[in-house]
Amino acid sequence: MSGRPSFSRAELESFRDAEVPDLLGGPDDPPVRLLFVGINPGLWTAAIQTHFAHPGNRFYPALLRGGVITEPVDAAAGMTEEDRARFRARGIGITNLVRRATAKASELTSEELRAGGADLVALVERVRPRVVAVAGITAYRQAFALPKAVPGRQPEPMGPAELWVVPNPSGLNAHETVKSLAAAYAEVGRAAGLL
Description:
This protein has about 200 residues and is α/β, with parallel strands linked by helices. About 35% of the residues lie in helices and about 10% in strands. The chain has helices at about 10-15, 45-50, 60-65, 80-90, 110-125, 135-145, 180-190; strands spanning about 35-40, 90-95, 130-135, 150-155, 160-165. α3 (about 60-65) crosses α7 (about 180-190) and α5 (about 110-125) packs across α6.
C-alpha cells in the first residue's frame, strides 16, 4: 500500500477539531439507502478527509467481506473519487454524530453527543435513507439518552428510517473482528436492500 501517507504526532494534532464532509449522494445519484454513522472523525480521518480511515480501522474490510461493497478501499491512503462514486452509486452514505476531529471519542462531551444526535435526526429527515446504522452502542446511548439500548435493530425508527446500532469498527474495539463486523454490516445491508 505504497500510497498510504505517514504523519508525525504533531502533524496529526494539527487536525484536531477539523471536520470531514459527509459522504452523501448528489442530485444525480441514487437515493441513500444505508447511512453509516460514525462517532466523530479521528485525527487520521481528518488529515486525509476520509471517514473511518485510521489504518487500524476495520470498517472497509468488514464492508467488503460482508458484501456491502464489492471493491476494496484503502481508506488509510484516502478514498479516491472512484471509491466515493461507487458508494454513492450503491446508495451508501457516511456521516458522524459529532463533526469535530479528536484523538479519541472519549474526548467528546455528553452535550456534544446529544447535539449531534439532534443533528443526525434532522439529516435523516432530509436525506431519508432506508436504514441508519450507528457504529457504537456507547455513543448511541449518550447521544439519545437511552442508557439501556442494546446493539441491533432499535425498536423505534429514526424518522423515515429503520434504525440499527452496529459495532464500532475501530481497532480499539478489540473484541470485534473483521468477521463479526462483516456479519453485522451485512445485516444492515440486507435491511437496506443492498444484498
